[in-house]
């Protein structure tokens, strides 16, 4: 934790997490602990001078949301960290929408909780990420079937073939196919990591990665859709941070929606890769995706636009694409029968047919990322952006 003296306000349901909070904070840190119901809807009871607000709840979700909203409205510069226990039942998304900076599932060790609190404080202080961090590229596509998994898996392998350490996280937690695309057996998955217990560190995460012959590694999606609920956003933020401290490139394959997990990945990314396809429906959704990211304040310069099946004869010209999207695609990937054959064999096209046009397109995409430094993708870092995006996702 920071050495600066803190003033901490904790609104807790039945003193939930109070002992852990006191143990996680530096000795002697003043903690004003009040009953969650006593914090007040208007926030009049929330300590104005507090540097950090902690909200702890198990069942009293509505009361917790009232306090989160009030604390955020009272002081926008002050982080709000939520501790929860039990089944969230949609509470996590509502808490972020209300203004929470982070959510931590209990129980946690003092070290883990202290780390989470320090991160929340550092983000609000505008701490600059370490220059030693690797790049993190989140691959997005508002519409399913555009080739996100093909793009992310080929990009991860292409970077590894260039001598860079790369790891691909399959964030399609219910129906992820990264394992199939790379021909990897899911002996361990992100679900196993999330439920393993104990503290997280880079070495522990490495034990749950599966390695591709190219050298690229992957953290695979759960084997069953019902396992997705075990993977929370606070857990993902810690995983992303630890992976960036260890690998040159962290890539994230996502489902076709702005879920809270996807938003957490986008917030942690240095670059975004938006994948579309040359058909009217996909282009419409790609345009909406670009507009949504722009509305939320994301730097357009951090977004690479990939257009799959770019040579398809569907009556849409490249000029039509540029006029519709307001920009030209950065990388064009043509139709190639070798891609579905490679997928059937569990091989990325950059390995199966390295001289093909499609493989060359993915190599060009990798070259773009090799040529640019890591930097935050977001032009701003405020909860208003996240709340608006969560409302759109709902």
Fraction of helical residues: 25-40%
β content, as a range? 15-25%
Broad structural category: alpha/beta
DSSP helical segment count = 16
Q: Judging from the principal axes of the Cα atoms, what is the shape?
A: elongated
Number of β-strand runs: 13
Parts with pLDDT < 50 across at least 5 consecutive residues? 127-131, 379-385, 390-394
First-last Cα distance: 35 Å
Q: Output the radius of gyration.
A: 22 Å
Main sheet specs: 8 strands, mixed
Mean pLDDT: 83
Q: What's the arrangement of strands in the largest beta sheet? A: 8-9-7-10-6-11-12-13
* SSE order, one letter for each helix or strand: EHEEHEHEHEHEHHHEEHEHEHEHEHHHH
Description of the molecule:
By secondary structure, the protein is of the alpha/beta class. It has 16 helices and 13 strands. It has helices at residues 18-24, 61-74, 91-98, 110-125, 148-161, 178-182, 190-194, 202-206, 233-244, 260-268, 280-295, 318-325, 338-344, 349-352, 357-370, 383-393; strands at 8-12, 31-35, 52-57, 80-84, 102-105, 135-140, 166-170, 210-211, 217-219, 249-253, 271-277, 303-308, 331-333. The protein has an eight-stranded mixed beta sheet, with helices on both faces. Strands 2-1-3-4-5 form a five-stranded parallel beta sheet, with helices on both faces. Strand 8 and strand 9 form a beta hairpin. Helix 1 packs across helix 4 (110-125), helix 5 (148-161) crosses helix 15 and helix 9 runs parallel beside helix 10 (260-268). The longest helix has 16 residues, at 110-125. The chain is elongated. The protein starts with 7 loop residues before the first strand and ends with a helix. Mean pLDDT is 83; it is low at 127-131, 379-385 and 390-394.
